[in-house]
Structure formats: structure tokens, C-alpha cells
TrEMBL record:
This is Thioesterase-like superfamily protein. It comes from the Bacteria. Residues 22-100 form the Acyl-CoA thioesterase-like N-terminal HotDog domain. Residues 150-245 form the Acyl-CoA thioesterase-like C-terminal domain.
Length: 260
């Protein structure tokens, strides 16, 4: 079965799905986020759920064997915090922190929340074993066709992911983390392609995904002088479950033309 990574002893090696769109010598941010989530979730105590994960992508992760390290920073009765990092050539290439929270009853009263208008494709549109993503631009229909979505309309994507590591089922938290980095795609894919590269990713979750499908809808993009903030809603067939935010830098000289 296709996967993002395979094991080589205690190290992990990128497969084609994990390689960056920007250059074949590097691992893509989506795969980096997934690996860090895989390590962080080993520190999630029973009765806790992952509520926030922040990833800093400050050095390229090379398309070479990867070591992932992690540790618990604090374990409390309601909040647990853990850190993780990717190490290559004795250098930390990317790092992440996660907050795990206990669940419990909701307080009394009502609060404002926006009306959820989250599009979903028909049942069976993607395979449960991993499939190419579906995209939707504005009010257009869902399609796998990248060229049909290279425009300035609001983007929504729909995904089914294969295993992160060969021989392991992908966990709900890993699915969410991989998709969190894809916020850069739905928020910064315009009429001439993708011209921003994200330097971080923050994923917030009120619950874990249900099922094998996940959607991501662009909510806002704020840009100025080559720096852009993109925010998106992460959701499944039962409704919204979290928010993703990326901070991105202009990378116009290496802009990716997905229509090609």
C-alpha cells in the first residue's frame, strides 16, 4: 500500500507522496507536520485529546533519513504539553508543540457561532485507502482537475489519506496535522498558481476527525509586502472540528503552476 514514509531502522525515509512540490530534494510541510504529530500523540494521556499543535518550519527537511525526537514538557490533571523535533545532520530542522486537554461537560448558556456552510462531495467520491484530492472553487463542482481550479475563487479541498508510515494505520490526529499544512494551498493558490511558502502551521481542534475523509475550506487571506496569513476551517462529514492558520512568505521566483 502507498504511504508517505517507510522505516529504515529507527529512521524514516520519504516516499513520493512526502516529497515537496517546491523541490524534489526536500520533504513537504504536509508530511513534516504528519511525522511530528505521530511523535507527539504518543504523549497524549488517557482521557485527553489533542487540542492545539503548532509547527515551526524554519529549515528545509531534506529528502534523506529523518530522526524524530519528542518529550513531555508538562503533564497536569487537565493540560499536558509536549514538544517534538525533526533532526538531520545534528540540526533541528523543524519543531512542534502540542497541547492535550481533558474533555468534560460544557458550561450552561448559549454562545454565538457562525452558520456552518461547509460543502461535501457525494458519498464514495474518494477511496478510504487514500486518493487524489478533490477541489472546489467558489460555486463550481468538485473535481480532481488542478487546471480547472487555478483561479482567484475561494478554495475548498477534500481528502482521503493513505498511511503516514508504511505498515501503520494513519491516526485521526495525523490526518488533521497533514491537512493543516494544506491550508497554504487552499488560501494561497491563485490565478497564476501558488506563490507563497508557509513558515509555520497551527492546528486547533475541538475534537478529532470522524471517518477517513477530511475537508479544508479557505476562510481568510491577509497579505502585505510579501507576508501572508491564511486561515481555514477543517471539517468532516459531521461538521467543523477545528481551524488551521499558516504564516507564509512570498516565493514568487519559484511559483508553482498547478495548471501545468
Amino acid at each position: 500500500m502507498v504511504s508517505f514514509f517507510t522505516r529504515r531502522g529507527d529512521l524514516l525515509v520519504a516516499e513520493e507522496l512526502a516529497v515537496s512540490h517546491w523541490t524534489p530534494t526536500q520533504v513537504g510541510g504536509h508530511a513534516v507536520c504528519g511525522l511530528l504529530a505521530r511523535s507527539l500523540e504518543t504523549h497524549c494521556p488517557a482521557g485527553f485529546v489533542p487540542a492545539r499543535m503548532t509547527v515551526d518550519l524554519f529549515r528545509p527537511v531534506l529528502n534523506a533519513p529523518i530522526e524524530v525526537r519528542s518529550e513531555v514538557v508538562r503533564q497536569g490533571t487537565r493540560i499536558t504539553v509536549a514538544d517534538a523535533s525533526i533532526v538531520q545532520d545534528d540540526q533541528v530542522r523543524a519543531r512542534a508543540s502540542a497541547a492535550f486537554l481533558t474533555t468534560g461537560p460544557e458550561p450552561a448558556g448559549r454562545m454565538w457561532s457562525p452558520e456552518a456552510d461547509l460543502p461535501v462531495p457525494s458519498e464514495g467520491s474518494v477511496s478510504p485507502y487514500g486518493a487524489p484530492p478533490l477541489f472546489k472553487s467558489g460555486d463550481r463542482e468538485w473535481t480532481h482537475d488542478f487546471a480547472a481550479n487555478q483561479n482567484a475563487d475561494r478554495k475548498t479541498s477534500w481528502h482521503s489519506l493513505p498511511p503516514l508510515v508504511d505498515g501503520e494505520p494513519i491516526s485521526p490526529f495525523q490526518r488533521a496535522a497533514v491537512l493543516g499544512d494544506t491550508t497554504n494551498h487552499v488560501c494561497h493558490w491563485g490565478s497564476h498558481g501558488a506563490g507563497y511558502i508557509n513558515t509555520d502551521m497551527t492546528l486547533t481542534l475541538s475534537r478529532l476527525p470522524v471517518g477517513y475523509e477530511l475537508g479544508l475550506r479557505a476562510d481568510n487571506t491577509v497579505t502585505s509586502e510579501g507576508i501572508s496569513i491564511g486561515t481555514a476551517t477543517l471539517y468532516d462529514r459531521t461538521g467543523p472540528l477545528g481551524t488551521c492558520v499558516v504564516t507564509a512568505l512570498s516565493n514568487g521566483r519559484r511559483q508553482i503552476d498547478f495548471a501545468r
